Amino acid sequence: MIIEILHVPECPHLTPAVEMVRRVLAAERLSAEIRTMLITDESGAQRERFPGSPTIRVDGRDVDPEGAGAISLSCRLYPGSAHPGLPAEETVRRALRAGAERQ
Predict the structure, then answer these.
(1) Domain at 75, CATH number
(2) Distance, CA of 8 to CA of 18 (rounded, Å)
(3) Where in the sequence is the domain holding 67, given as residue range(s)?
(4) How far, in Å, CA of 44 to CA of 38, rounded?
(5) Which of 6, 30, 88, 99 could form a disulfide with 55 if both were Cys (CB 3.0 to 4.6 A apart)?
(6) What is the pLDDT of residues 10-35, one digit of tens each?
(7) What is the secondary structure of the chain as a DSSP string?
(8) Total domains, the chain
(9) What are phi and psi of 102, to 5 degrees?
C-alpha cells in the first residue's frame, strides 16, 4: 500500500497529517510506504487533480473523495473534522482498511 500526502509549500497541516497516518497505521497494524508530494504550481495541481493541502491518498484514492472539490493551490478544509485542516481520523482509518483489503 502506498500513501501519498500532497501539499503546498509551508503547509501547516503536513506534519500533523503524516503523524496521523503513522498513528492509524500503527493502531491498525498495517504497513505502508508514506510519500509526501510538494505541489508548487498550477500545472502540478492540474496534473495531480489536487483539491488542496493536505490531500491524503491511499493507492491513488483520496481518503475523502466527497470532500475533494475544485483543483486548488490553497489549504483544504475538511468540514466536520475535529481539526478542519485534516480529515477525520476515522476517515483515514476507513481508507487504510479499504486499501489493505484491496491488496
Answers:
(1) 3.40.30.10
(2) 14
(3) 2-102
(4) 9
(5) 6
(6) 999 999 999 999 999 999 999 999 99
(7) -EEEEEE-TT-TTHHHHHHHHHHHHHHHT---EEEEEE--SHHHHHHHT--SBSEEEETTEESSGGG--S--SSB---TTSSSTTS--HHHHHHHHHHHHHH-
(8) 1
(9) -70, -15
Sign of the CA dihedral 20, 4, 32, 89? Answer: positive
pLDDT (average), residues 75-99:
94
Place of cell 466536520: 80
The Cα 89–Cα 9 span in angstroms is 23
Residue with C-alpha cell 492509524?
A: 24
Q: Give dist(CA 36, CA 56) in Å, integer.
A: 9
Whether this model's pTM surpasses 0.90: yes
The CA-to-CA distance between both ends of the chain, in Å, stands at 7
28 grid coordinates: 491498525
